[in-house]
Amino acid sequence: MGGIFYGIGVGPGNPDLLTLKAIRAIETADVIIAPKTEKKDGSVALSIARPYLKRNVEIVYQVFPMVTGFADSSEAWETNKREILALLSAGKNTAFLTIGDPMFYSTYIYIYRLLAKEDIEIETIPGIPAFCAIASRFGYPLVEGNDVLTIIPATATEEKIKGALAVADNVVMMKVYKNFSDMAGVLEEHNMAEQAIMVSRCGLVNEECINDIMAQKDKRVNYLSTIITRKSKGE
Ligand SMILES: C[S@@+](CC[C@H](N)C(=O)[O-])C[C@H]1O[C@@H](n2cnc3c(N)ncnc32)[C@H](O)[C@@H]1O
Fold it and tell me: In the predicted model, is pLDDT for residue 232 greater than 80?
């Protein structure tokens, strides 16, 4: 019988923010798949899950290129898929780790789509997305009453970002990295800069929270950075 494939959300950083289900799956997995980018040696998802790894567990690093769409790098995904299928057919329960939630702007989605076409058992275990952890940690209510929450990747086109901001009450802006300065300016145009907080590496080493994004807009920010803001001033 083949192994089970688990897609596990490990939350944004603090190892206390994994679900019990995620911990149980990690503790019993035969193989851990740790996604990493070409540029970095380590895997953030693996470092978050490390307290729960079984002694001598097999760790397989898979490189997932930083791309905007699946078609850009289908060869890399296919190679990773074949490696996972070989592990599963050897009867190994295999846990693929992913930051935050696996179905939310995650590399897991690409590999999940490929594996879902195969005759294997898959279980996806949700995780706490970064924006929820940030809201709790920094005391920033996300939405209440009839507020509409709009989630915007800062990598989207300017037209799309401005269109979304025009109708948004409250905003989560993801993937604020190379474009922090531009995003601060666009939020200022929509009267959302003053209420904004930008949090980098929530729950991880070198966590940072910026409250005055316009004053700090020229700062270099970490890849793991998210802005939360709203139109109204709040309480
Ligand atoms: C590829 S997406 C992954 C999202 C993830 N699946 C989630 O549920 O939060 C990467 C983006 O998530 C956000 N992010 C993930 N972890 C974070 C953290 N610890 N602190 C701040 N933002 C984080 C940032 O906006 C980052 O650019």
Answer: no
